[in-house]
Specification:
CATH architecture: 2-Layer Sandwich
Number of domains: 1
Order of helices and strands: EHEEHEEEEEEHE
Oligomer: single chain
Low-confidence stretches: none
Structural class: alpha+beta
Distance between the termini: 15 Å
Number of strands: 10
CATH topology: Alpha-Beta Plaits
Length: 182
């Protein structure tokens, strides 16, 4: 299952500090039992879709968010309190991918919203994602449960540029901004 966090950050004066904090936090998260992978991304074209940042995690279920270990590292938003004034986010968990693969700098994540099949793009295979939890509190983390259906694909950066994929309505294109932690 994929735990997906989409974020906007609105304070340019602290963006660098926030990104640095988040990189450290990813390393802490993958040290927890039940959180297998973590990686962050940023929109290729700022302003072309609603969410500028994306974080993708692999979890077997929501139990990790109800552990003392998760709360101890500030899980559920407690670790990021210094940045709450500038954060807006949406969180969801999806079935469809059992383990999120590493996305190297040479590749991009494509996300479609409110469609299970993706956008018909020749040569690009979208994997359907279905929300595995509705709007609920999962331990220390609030799951929004929306959108219920999405589609995800990985594609090389050259194809994104050649085909101008970031200009397609309803398609969000993200580049990796952190290492892949596992």
């Amino acid at each position: 299952m994929i735990y997906m966090v989409e974020l906007n950050y609105s304070d340019p004066s602290t963006t660098k500090k926030w990104n640095s904090w988040y990189e450290t936090y990813l390393r802490q998260l993958v040290s927890l039992d039940g959180l297998a992978t973590a990686q962050r991304f940023q929109a290729v074209e700022k302003g072309t879709q609603f969410w500028e940042y994306l974080a993708l995690y692999t979890v077997p279920n929501l139990d990790v968010y109800d552990t003392d270990a998760y709360r101890a590292i500030g899980g559920g938003g407690n670790a990021s309190k210094a940045f709450h004034h500038a954060i807006s986010r949406r969180r969801n968990v999806y079935d469809g991918v059992s383990r999120m693969p590493e996305v190297p700098e040479t590749h991009r994540v494509l996300l479609c919203e409110d469609t299970a099949q993706g956008i018909g793009l020749p040569g690009i295979l979208f994997v359907p994602l279905k929300a595995s939890a509705g709007n609920q509190q999962a331990g220390a983390t609030k799951i929004d449960g929306q959108p219920e259906r999405r589609a995800i694909a990985l594609v090389d950066a050259a194809s994104v540029d050649q085909r101008n994929l970031s200009a397609i309505e309803g398609l969000a294109v993200y580049r990796p901004i952190t290492a892949y932690y596992a």
